[in-house]
């Protein structure tokens, strides 16, 4: 898999990290500052994982994907139900995370095939 794809995805994670860094210091949504701090730290780890792609990362990543699908999926549905509008941030996350996971799995499979 082309490394450039993962560099592009890491820019998305940088954007998530910046959002959560701002959330530590300013009230940008309903989440408490500690939650933003936690997700900022996860973003740092995510950038490392996406750029270096250690073997274990593909096995840890589904945990955050599941959490994000639940959290942003719920936000997306609630926002639509209450406002009859699309929550674009949640939609982006709902597409971004599973797509990145699929790419990570494909990359690991490619590396595994090369080693056999």
Q: Would you write up a description of this structure?
A:
By secondary structure, this protein is an all-alpha fold. The protein contains 4 helices and no strands. Helix content is 84%, strand content 0%. The mean pLDDT is 95.
Q: Mean of the pLDDT scores?
A: 95
Order of helices and strands: HHHH
Radius of gyration over C-alpha positions, nearest whole angstrom: 15 Å
Stretches with pLDDT under 50, minimum 5 residues: none
Distance between the termini: 17 Å
Give the total of beta strands: 0
Number of helices: 4
Structural class, from helix and strand content? mainly alpha
Largest sheet: none
Outline: globular
Briefly say what this structure is.
The protein has helices at about 5-25, 35-50, 55-85, 90-115.
Give keywords.
116 residues; 84% helix; 4 helices; globular; mainly alpha
Spell out the blueprint of helices and strands.
Blueprint: H1 3-25, H2 33-52, H3 57-83, H4 88-115
Helix pairs in contact: 1-2, 3-4
């Amino acid at each position: 898999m082309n490394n450039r794809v993962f560099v592009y995805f890491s820019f998305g994670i940088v954007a998530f990290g910046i959002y959560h860094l701002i959330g530590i210091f300013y009230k940008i949504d309903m989440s408490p500052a500690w939650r933003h701090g936690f997700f900022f730290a996860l973003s740092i780890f995510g950038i490392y994982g996406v750029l270096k792609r250690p073997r274990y990362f593909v096995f840890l990543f589904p945990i955050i994907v599941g959490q994000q699908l639940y959290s942003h999926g719920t936000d997306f549905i609630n926002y639509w139900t209450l406002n009859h509008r699309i929550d674009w941030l949640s939609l982006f996350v709902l597409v971004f995370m599973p797509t990145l996971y699929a790419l990570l799995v494909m990359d690991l499979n490619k590396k595994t095939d090369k080693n056999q």
